[in-house]
Amino acid sequence: MISKKILHVVVTVFSLGSSAVMADTSTEQPVPPVKFLQLSETVWMHTSYKVLKKFGAYPSNGLVVVDGANSILIDSAWTDAQTTEILDWARNELGHPVKQAIFTHAHSDKMGGVGAVLARGIDTHALALSNQIASASGLMPAEFDLTLNQNDKALNFGPVEVFYPGAGHSADNLVAYIPEAEILFGGCLIRSARAKRLGNIADANLMHWGDAVGSVRHQFPDATLVVPGHGEPAGAELLALTLQLVTEHGR
């Protein structure tokens, strides 16, 4: 039985180093390989990196959730090449090939690898607004639109519940919850324990961000492990931290 405490999360980590890509920076710093962290018996976190001149190798998280003989991908990596590594890992190492993919908003850290997923014939889903934004911003949209309005009842994808709390980090940010494991994927709506500010707010709705986090907390009160879009997983205190940052820096 997997403990509900973050300190007892299974920390089996794999890294794939054969296909590391080089970022287009003056230093040509190599991008670290994609990594995988086991969060429960059926949920793994994938972390991919992009080298940013200001921050160096910057991580972005998503999930692979086992669903019977197959699995569900929540968010791509930054690139098609990194996302291909994730898909290969799910098929060859995990033994549960990805059959569905859900993308939580239309930024390159979450939808930069949609093309790799589509190339495998995998069903891809994103909020209708995300697909519109992706098409307008040069990203590949998902094949299927999710017709979710703010605070609608969560949509079920097998073991995954998908919820739209309204605008926050972006106008289209979704969250995902795995009830069996009590794991909440907050995506970029939720900040990590090390965050001092709200991060990228170029597309943010600062006035509604706090309300969106409150809706997530109300919708999923049993969440014991929260995965932010960037940084380490922790407990439900990440929601309170994000609300604090919104109050301090978001208005």
UniProtKB/TrEMBL annotation:
Oligomeric and partner information: Monomer.
Signal peptide: 1-23
PROSITE patterns with a match to the protein in the record: BETA_LACTAMASE_B_1
SUPFAM superfamilies recorded: Metallo-hydrolase/oxidoreductase
Broad class of where this protein is predominantly found: periplasm
Catalyses which reaction(s): a beta-lactam + H2O = a substituted beta-amino acid
Cofactor annotation: Zn(2+)
Keyword Nucleotide-binding: no
Annotated protein name in UniProt: beta-lactamase
